[in-house]
Structure formats: C-alpha cells, structure tokens
Amino acid sequence: MCTITGLGDLVRLCAALGAEAVGSLAPGEQELLASHAGSSPENLVRSAADDIGRGLDPLGDAYTRLLSPQERRPLGQTYTPTAIVESMVQWATDQGSPARIVDPGAGSGRYLLAAAHAFPEAVLVGADIDPLSTLMLRANVAASGLAERATVVLGDYRSLALPDIDGRTLFVGNPPYVRHHQIAPEWKAWLISTAKKRGLKASGLAGLHVHFFLATAEHGRPGDYGAFITSAEWLDVNYGSLVRQLLLDGLGGESLHVLDPKAAPFADATTTGAITCFKLGEKPESITVRRVEAVGDLGRLDLGHAVSRQRLAEASRWSVLTRVTPKLPEGYIELGELCRVHRGAVTGANKVWVHREGDIDLPDSVLFATVTKARELFGAGARLAAADSLRRVIDLPVDLDVFDADERKQINRFLRVAKKEKVHEGYVAANRKAWWSVGLRDAAPVLATYMARRPPAFVRNDVEARHINIAHGLYPRQDLGTTTLDNLAAHLRSAVSLGQGRTYAGGLTKFEPKEMERLPIPSLESLRDGDFSAAGSAPAME
Predict the structure, then answer these.
(1) Average pLDDT, stretch 85-105?
(2) 274-329: per-residue pLDDT in tens?
(3) In whole angstroms, what is the distance from residue 63 CA to residue 414 CA?
(4) pLDDT at 541
(5) CA–CA gap between residue 31 and residue 47 (Å, rounded)
(6) Mean pLDDT across the stretch 245-268?
(7) What's the rounded Cα separation, in Å, for the pair 10 and 3?
(8) What is the mean pLDDT of the chain?
(9) Half-sphere exposure at residue 436, Cβ-oriented, CA atoms within 13 angstroms
(10) Kind of pairing between the strands at 123-128 and 150-154
C-alpha cells in the first residue's frame, strides 16, 4: 500500500479528497497546491477516505508524523487525542443544539468534524493561519460530505468575521499554544486595548491561548457556549488573570478540568492541560473544578466540586483550588513561612543589557555580576563561589544625575547605542519607570532554577550575584544565619522533586514563585540544628 512520505504527498492527497471543492481557496492554499501539483495513488485516496468515514484523522496523523513537535511549535500546533475531543463534544451535546460551530484553531478539523456529526443541522466555521492545515480541513470536510455546511478560513481567529445568526454558537477546540515572544506587537496592542474596553487589564506577556479566550468573548453573544483545551498555565500566572476575569464576568465559566501530565492530554507534548467549559453572558455564582488523573475519567465533563465566585475572585492562583493540599506533618512548615520567593528582573533585551566582563565601557557601579543562565546554577553545585565567569548586567538608576561628568558621558554614549537598537520602544522597557533602569533585585542568599526537565537547583549565593528572570531568589523574612541557610538549601536540593512543579509543553517542569513557597521544609528549629529526623517524612505534594 502507498504511504505518505512527504508534505508534497499530503498536499496531493488533500486535493484528491476534494479540498478544492470546499469554498474558495485562499492564495496561500493555491500556491501550496501549485507547488505540489500531481496525482495521488488511488488506493491511498480510498484508504484515507475510508478512515475519514470511520471518524479517524489520517491527514492530521500524517502531518504530526512528518513534522516534529519542534517544527510545529512556532504555530503552536498540538493535536488532541480523540478521547478528549469526544468528552468535550459530549459536554456540548448536554447543553442543547447550536446553530453554528466555530473551531478557532482548526488544524485538520478533529473538533469541527466531531461536533458536525453530533449536530447535523449546524453550520461549520473553521479557521487556521496555516495553509496546509486549512487544506487538510477542507479535504476532511469534503470526504465527510459536509462541504455545503462548512466555511474554511485561512486567517487569524482574532480578526475572524462572524455574521449574526439566529441561534447559538458553539466555540470548541484546542487554541494554538504560542508564547508571547512570537506574537506580533500589533496583536499585543490589540489584546491590551480590547481588554481595556471591557474594563480589564491584559499583559503583553500573555500567550496566544489568552488572546483566543478574549477573541471568543468578542465574537460571541449571550447564550453562546464553548469548551477549549489549553495549557493550564493561565490558572496561575499573572498574565492569565485576564482569562480568570473573563470566566467570572462575560465569558461565563461553568467548569474547569485540569489534566495531569501523565494523562497525556496532548499526544506530542508533556504538559498540564486544562479543559474550560463556558457559557457567554453569564456571571457564575460558582465554577465546578476538578483534577483528572486519566483521560478515561473525563466522562461528559459533569463532575467536580463547586468553588464560589468570591473565592475564585480573591484567589491569585486557581490551580490550588483544583487540588486537595496534603496536610503538613508535624515538624514541617512551608518554605514561604521562612522566605519570600521572587523571580529575577526581565531585561527586555539581553543583547543590550547583558555583557561579558570587560566588554562594555561603563562605570563599575552599574555593572552587576549576574546569573543569566540556568546552567550557571546547575553547574555551581551547592555554592556559587566565584563570579569571574558570570556576565555583567547593566542596571542604571532612574536618576542619572547622580553620576559625575565623565561617568555621564559613558552612560549617554551607551544610551544612544541602546536607542539605535530601539530598546526604549520594547514592551518591557516602555513599561518601566525609566526605560534605562532594569531594576535588578538585591542579591538573594539562595538562588534556584525553576524551569527544566530536572528538579530545581538550590544554590548558596556566596558571591552575592544578582539574577534575572531565569532564576528565583529566596529572600529570608528574618535573619536566618549562615548555618540555617546552608541547611535549608541542602534540604531543598535533596527533597524537591519534579512532581511538585507543573509540567508544560515539551516536558519542562516549572515552579512559579508561589508554588516554590509551598514546598514543605523542616521547621526553623530543625534547620538551625541541622537535625531533620524529628521532622519526620515530607509529604508528597501534587
């Protein structure tokens, strides 16, 4: 039997399945077909059509086989297992029948086709910015006999034009996972201004899935409803506050189902997933939440415990509301009782603000030995004992009048170079009190990595190095003394496991500052004495 061995084969198969018969092709799709013109073997076409007829996705499966997760990452393409798609569509069927179904990042159409079969009277709208994905979607639609009901758009969901209709719209799918670094400035501005019109605050650091939640609130009308699966990071991070606010006011959160990474919510990415069900226009008195260990436990997304609107509104992190926190045994406290945990400053442009020692002509008083890469902490072992190999971060004060004339000439020369690089126009710099002042935190006595495929490194900072946003600093709430700090760092190095953090796409495990503050540690007395036997065994944290 013939197989799909390259993207050209996949494009030709889409054409053979009838992609060109579903609406008008966009220029990008036409160019793709023209560049891979030719026929597809008849037996391959028949086999693919048969699989599509049985509810399978041979086109999407081929696509994920031909392109690695790394190659698909710039577009945020992760394909959802059938069992999760089915649970989300089953939830939708329990809410009534929509007149229209919209899949915001449709890919090959797994959600759109499943929902189309569940709601045979609904019109279908699928959008994607990738021309090969929209060709696969068109081919799947054609092979399923749904062409007359479907509109396929090669374009950005945020600018999608949805005409008014009689009846409700179901929004369902898996919005692309793209970090803010890859989002264009004009779309960051759209996010902030659109949220502001709703009386909400948004951050330019938000990932694309946050944009899609806001776009859905904009596109939808009261009575519409939906279910999205995304990475779970918006539950806790600052830039996720926009989604949390929307779910309480306007987007109408109904339920939240957090999938453990072991449940493999995405076939090609190890990450904590979250299924969010919502009903637009509602202001819920409570939202049902739960944690799910296995996909088979999802059911119809109708289980969980209710968390009140007031508690949700007051909480800065929602993931803790989905789990039962184990009680600390006698002799243990949380790290946050002894130390605040703070992430390092964001420079906004490392190539301008970070230099090797001796590479920049500026006063020594503004050059700070700084941990700028996680490997510097992993390689240090128990103690960061030398600063020679560390890079220097330029941290100017807000008030530049404190420098003498010669120093000011050096600084003005540097600032002119920085402005040529347009650093002052960047999002981070433009939102500082003074664009030229990075604002490094004071040196922390213990530094920690927080995102890796291994447990965090906890390193005593003997050289009083600063840190930027690749590390956390542990800042004692009281004077702990050298021995206590040594014992604290030693305990954390030996006791903290990957399971205590949250896993994201690509298998990276992350510890946000507040999560790190929840780590169990022996009591202050035990740490002072260096005797942890009295503290018993540390509890396993979710």
Answers:
(1) 97
(2) 999 999 999 999 999 999 988 889 999 999 989 999 889 988 889 878 865 567 88
(3) 48
(4) 44
(5) 26
(6) 85
(7) 10
(8) 92
(9) 15
(10) parallel
**Residue 53, class by beta-carbon neighbours within 10 Å (0-12 exposed, 13-18 middle, 19+ buried)?**
exposed
Residue carrying structure tokens 């935190």: 441
- In this structure, are residues 327 and 360 in contact, taking their beta carbons and an 8 Å threshold? no
Residue among 178, 210, 173, 181 at smallest CA distance from 194: 210
Residue ranges with strand state E in 376-463: 383-384, 391-394, 446-449, 451-452, 458-461
Which residues, including other chains, have CB under 8 Å from residue 227's CB and lie 6 or more apart? 88, 91, 92, 171, 172, 275, 276, 277, 278, 301
Summarize the chain as % helix, strand, coil (round to 5): 40, 20, 40
- 155 and 170 in contact (C-beta within 8 Å)? no
pTM listed for this prediction: 0.66
Per DSSP, the three-state class of 319 is helix
Query: What number of other Cβ atoms are within 10 A of residue 332's Cβ?
Result: 18
DSSP strands (E only) in 195-240: 225-231
CA 99 to chain centroid: 31
Adjacent-strand bridge partners of 226: 171, 278
Cβ distance 515 to 503 under 8 Å? no
What are the helix (H) ranges across 54-130? 58-66, 69-72, 82-93, 110-118
Whether 248 and 195 have beta carbons less than 8 Å apart is answered as no
Q: Residue type for 442, please?
A: D
DSSP 8-class letter at 235: G
pLDDT, tens digit, 9 for 90 and up, residues 222-245: 999 999 999 888 998 889 999 999
The letter for the amino acid at 50 is D
By residue count, the chain amounts to 542
